[in-house]
Amino acid sequence: MSTRSIHVFPAVNDLAAFFADLLSKEMARLKTGEFFSLALSGGSTPKAVFEYLSQHKQHIPWQRLQLFWGDERCVPPEHPESNYNMVQNSLLRHISIPSGHIFRIKGEAEPQAESVRYAETIVEKIPSVNKVPRFDLVMLGMGEDGHTASLFPGNINVGGSQSLFEVATHPVSGQRRITATLELINNAKTIVFLVTGQSKAEMLSRILEKKEGWERYPASMVKANHGKVLWLTDNAAASKLKI
Question: Is residue 154 domain-shared with residue 92, that is, in the same domain?
Answer without folding.
Answer: no
